[in-house]
Amino acid sequence: MNKTEYSGLKKIVSWNVNSVNARLPHLLDYLRTEQPDILCLQELKCMTEKYPKADIEALGYGSQVFGQKAYNGVAILSKSPLELVSENFEDNAADVSARFIACRQNDVVFMCAYVPNGQSLGSEKFLFKLDWLHRMRKYLEAKFSPRDKIVLVGDFNIAPDDRDVYDPVGWKEHIHCSAQERESLSLVTRFGFIDTFRIHNQKNGQFSWWDYRDGSFLENRGLRIDLIFATPSMALKCKGSRIAFEQRSKERPSDHAPVESFFDI
Question: Is residue 10 a contact partner of residue 234, using CB atoms and an 8 Å limit?
């Protein structure tokens, strides 16, 4: 899908920037040139007060920010006002990590998630990852309906199926690709979410993350772990989706590329 094809559509983007301040020149250039309507950022790696609010506002974007020192952090950017709905899952869990934010704009709820990495199968961090996804499902059930207009985006740290892995045999039952992780992600999506990228593209070999090491990006050895989901009423309005690979080829980039979906709303 080229730029002329999505002219007039609402552009919703998910991007793990791997430090918003380190990647600020790329972020500002993306806002100037690509003009997303909604941009959801993950892995800010800064406290809310250290977020580059003034630079972003200078380009006409407001932000709802949920930051954390050195780790995690999520934000939703828009030129139109956003009403904060929640930070994390409001479930009284002993979880201080800033990994989830939801905002409302008119009658649409936008959710930005940074799912825990999980480290290794069976580890404490892995169990936390699975539990975190189960908590997300409970949050959705408690506050929303599949009939609502919801767009859930983020770095899910899970490749949904083998098409999303450059080497499915080598990655089988490894972190990001295990059956347990995929089932936990499926638990979330069975709430009523559709993968908007797969509405328009069924091919394998299209990834959103590549390791910094060993020429992974140049050889396209990656994973598709950055996802844009929508409830049925919103998915029907999705007219295209792409991965902005060109952002990954810049100097000192994030290891993730932005994922873009375009909606007729």
Answer: no
Neighbours of 220 (CB within 10 A): 13
Catalytic residue status for 114: yes
pTM of the model as a whole: 0.97
User: What CA–CA distances, in Å, run from 186 to 47, 121, 130, 179, 182?
Assistant: 31, 18, 11, 10, 6
From 6, 30, 51, 114, active-site residue:
114
Neighbours of 10 (CB within 10 A): 18
Query: Which tens digits make up the pLDDT trace of 214-231?
Result: 999 999 999 999 999 999
Active site residue 155: yes
Determine which one of 30, 155, 164, 195 is catalytic. 155
Q: Residue 39 and residue 184: Cα distance in Å, rounded?
A: 25
* Alpha carbons 32 and 4: distance in angstroms, whole number: 17
Q: Domain segments of the chain: what residues?
A: 10-263
pLDDT tens string 92-107 = 888 889 999 999 999 9
23-61 exposure pattern, b = at least 16 Cβ within 10 A, e = fewer? beebbbebbeeeebbbbbbbbbbbebeebbeebbeeeeb
SS3 for 152?
strand
Separation CA 219–CA 62 (nearest Å): 37
Do β-strands 83-87 and 194-195 pair in parallel, antiparallel, or remain unpaired?
A: unpaired
The CATH homologous superfamily to which domain 10-263 belongs is Endonuclease/exonuclease/phosphatase (3.60.10.10)
